[in-house]
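Incident review: delayed structure delivery

Summary: a single-chain prediction request sat in the queue longer than the usual turnaround. Root cause was a stuck worker, restarted by the on-call engineer. No data loss occurred. The affected request and its eventual output are reproduced below so the record is complete for anyone auditing the incident later.

Affected input:
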Amino acid sequence: MDFKSELKKYGASALSAAVIRNFQIADTLAVGNGINLHTRFQAASISKMVFTIAVLRLVSEGKINLEDEVGPYLNDIPLQGRATVRQILSHTAGFGVHGFDGYRQGERLPTTAQIILGAPPANSPKVVQEYTPGEHWVYSGGGFMVLQKCVENISGIPFADFMEQTVLLPLGMADSAFRQDIRENMADGYTADAVPLPGGHYLMPEQAAAGLWTTAADLARFGLHLQNILRGKAGLIPLALMQQMVTPQHRDILKLENTSCQTGLGCYLKQLYHSSYFGHSGGNYGFLSRANFSLQNGSGCCILINSDAADPLIEKMQDFFIGAGEKCPASLRSRKLQAGPSPGRGGSSQPLVAQPPSSAPAAHHHHPPQEK
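Output delivered after worker restart:
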């Protein structure tokens, strides 16, 4: 596959990819001018899956329970309705606010409380319970922000620091961060019309829902760690909690959005290429992402691309890396993957003009699970 040519077709300029085979990271790939294996991309809603592991660590430490109602952990933030940690992680809490648009650099960023309450300077509506909890499945980034506030109150430290200490550093995800003030080795995002975003990207203070900056290699380390827990190796969370994470949580619940897969805790569950996979996809303005990990054969694939329009390319690459990979000899697969970073410098010399985040519906982001 000619990755550079494929990127041009979809108005993208860079990608980061990693492939897991036989419980090992078999290949890593970085394509684009100035792009290397350590260049960070916005992971968008894959943030939710990484955040879920941090929540499950708190569960394993007895600091919160999956069946706890979240209200008491919010302190002075009023929450309309009742919902449990498990319901939020499985999108069955009934909360609204599908996703978030982000903020231009230089704009004042809201606190977590302001995001939940829809109070200025937040550009998203108040997170309210629109459906009876436990009776409906509705994708909700807003619910994850409610849980982010709970975690902030439990830990007593800034959310990005908590995630670094709880998940990123222990897993060696050295190129990953939930902080929004990083400045080095970051891919610039592009709209579906191949227009670069102002300043290269929008800021995402909705960190648990969409704020992770990462590389495909780091995501592969994360996914491989979870796969190893499932086959009995010691890890960040106990096997019993990992098994709950990849167990469907809404078998008998009426789903209000079309979805071709089940939902575990902070992840999707689906059949791909004759195997069962867990994972997540994501989309912030200027970035698309997907990560899937097999529950059965130690394979997986992580793809990050800097374009709004690259979903078909992500699908094609996933088929190439995993689908064809299950059918091809290892030697052939290795030859197929010969590609590397192009010489030159990242970024774009084009004028930085794009529509402001508020000009498009939030539902564009953090893809609901009609993913493949």
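Verification: The longest strand covers residues 275-284.
Action items: add queue-age alerting; document worker restart procedure.
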